[in-house]
Amino acid sequence: MARGSAVAWAALGPLLWGCALGLQGGMLYPQESPSRECKELDGLWSFRADFSDNRRRGFEEQWYRRPLWESGPTVDMPVPSSFNDISQDWRLRHFVGWVWYEREVILPERWTQDLRTRVVLRIGSAHSYAIVWVNGVDTLEHEGGYLPFEADISNLVQVGPLPSRLRITIAINNTLTPTTLPPGTIQYLTDTSKYPKGYFVQNTYFDFFNYAGLQRSVLLYTTPTTYIDDITVTTSVEQDRLVNYQISVKGSNLFKLEVRLLDAENKVVANGTGTQGQLKVPGVSLWWPYLMHERPAYLYSLEIRGKGFDWPLLVKDFNLLRWLGANAFRTSHYPYAEEVMQMCDRYGIVVIDECPGVGLALPQFFNNVSLHHHMQVMEEVVRRDKNHPAVVMWSVANEPASHLESAGYYLKMVIAHTKSLDPSRPVTFVSNSNYAADKGAPYVDVICLNSYYSWYHDYGHLELIQLQLATQFENWYKKYQKPIIQSEYGAETIAGFHQDPPLMFTEEYQKSLLEQYHLGLDQKRRKYVVGELIWNFADFMTEQSPTRVLGNKKGIFTRQRQPKSAAFLLRERYWKIANETRYPHSVAKSQCLENSLFT
Ligand code: GCB
Asked: Quick one: pLDDT band at residue 597, thresholds 50, 70, 90?
């Protein structure tokens, strides 16, 4: 066990215990402009997983001090991507511990010589704990995947006449512990008749594969030394169609800010000056979701100044959403790449923006360290996504064990904190509808419910769905009197499996199950049920288990984005609803579906 503990620490790595809440600075999406240049570092990086018993050889031998190839063999690793699926080595697919990435970059001379230029290293996400060195100097640490982080590295690159060559080394640990988000546990199997010495497994409590690595873009960008660090835009439509802006400038007090609001045709419709103010927009065009207005997704721009992510796949997915007549999804179960959020703004797709609070299944996961970290993560999500018109709600978790006493306080605190970060948007968490004694529901604005009638129980009894669904809705509405979204429902379906009368796992069963749900949803749709999201958009990878056939197959599209029969059923339904409600602006009903872009 002594050895076990050493491995536990190794797998865990250093964690930021007890750091203060409150984020330093903003997290604007890097965009080229007359005053900012970007240099993408996507492409092939050198890579090594630390397979040593304690997983700490990299630290003991200080691999960051010299080029990675000098301390042992490396392989090519594409960035952005998850390291798990790239090689044929099964040990890498299931690896738990530290992996090392390295890339050399040659910087433009101006970046290293011009002291009025700030050089920033930005990592789109690193799942889940990352340490970054630049030329061997410890530069940055970050806890939590799926969100960007960055460091000003000007003082490391502007140190003399010549250092235009940079070596960036990033060590990433994918271990999930009771205090990470999502949480997990490391279990040591000590029966030496069955397991070798020191054998451990990573347990998780959620239903997707724990892909890891540099899954979004890494880039360098510049700003002037006096620069806009953050922008917050809020709008009000009740009175005078006002756009309120607040701009944080760093580096100097000597600056002048001019603010221009441009419409979709690039015509200036309002002007302002200074770090905060209000712009009046006469005859404003509001941002409406797809199918809810003759001109949906109207965007203004305010001028003041990833990718496992894959553009072709992303555009294909948005085309599929349009084809279906869907206009919403939830980022289940973590924030998606920033480029996905931008597409939602442009395509009129409403987003419930969910943080990686998934797998909160055990009582010991609701501890103070986790709470603190969870609040910090919500700050990072809101900081990153607050200015997206497509984001209509924050979701702080998916199916936490919210019937537990300790979960009540925990959820109350995370929800209150999120509301204080952004009072303009509702907050929810997604409940397992079985948790009738839900301790968190009193604090949310909207109740989101997941249920799997005739799937995880009463197998095959499709005839029970309408009754069970009606009972679910009535019980929850009676108790909380809040709008409800059916946030998951669906059936595992292997494309090409057919059976009539329907049997589980066939395309016919998925269709029939959805049909029964739709009959039940239609009973409540005009009352308090304000949205429906099927589970799931496309099949996705999970850990292997007896209930998963090469991953979760509840997609209405395959992983290759081909439709199963249910996709046509949903298409008919969504377009019918769209045609019924087009465009009664006062009624915010959306037909939605869950997404598994997993970028
Ligand atoms: C759920 C979870 C989701 C799973 C789904 C399922 O309730 O929220 O992560 O993938 O059920 O298919 O079992």
From this structure: very low
Which atom belonging to ligand 1 lies closest to the Cα atom of 490? 12
In ligand 1, the atom with minimum distance to the C-alpha of 398 is 8
Q: Does residue 320 register a pLDDT over 90?
A: yes
248-301 pLDDT, tens digit per residue, is: 999 998 899 999 999 999 999 999 999 999 999 888 888 999 999 989 999 998
Q: Has residue 491 got a pLDDT over 70?
A: yes
Average pLDDT over residues 27-31: 94
512's CB contacts (< 8 A; 6+ apart) are 462, 502
Please tell me the distance between residue 207's alpha carbon and the centre of ligand 1 in angstroms.
Answer: 6
484-506 per-residue burial string, b: 16 or more CB within 10 A, e: under 16: bbbbbbbbbbbbebeeeebebeb
| Nearest ligand 1 atom to alpha carbon 554 | 12
Residue (of 376, 413, 396) closest to 20 by Cα position: 376
Mean pLDDT of 526-555: 95
Q: Which residue in 435, 432, 396, 439 sits closest to 414, CA to CA?
A: 396
Q: What residue has token string 């509840």? A: 554
Looking at residue 161, its pLDDT comes to: 65
Strands (E), 340-446: 350-354, 391-398, 427-432
> Is 474 a residue of the active site?
no
Closest of 514, 515, 553 to residue 534, by C-alpha: 514
In this structure, the dihedral spanned by the alpha carbons of residues 354, 234, 27 and 116, taken in order and rounded to 10 degrees, is 170
The partner residues of 173 in beta bridges, in order of sequence, read 98, 129
- Per the residue annotation, which of 102, 150, 338, 399 is the catalytic one? 399
Residue 599 has pLDDT above 60, yes or no: no
- Nearest CA, atom 3, ligand 1: 207
**Of 115, 187, 183, 180, the residue nearest 143 (C-alpha):** 180
Nearest CA to ligand 1 atom 5: 207
DSSP 159: S
Burial class from Cβ neighbours inside 10 Å (0-12, 13-18, 19+) for residue 334 reads buried
Alpha carbon distance 8, 201 (integer Å): 11
Confidence band, pLDDT 50/70/90 cuts, at residue 141? very high
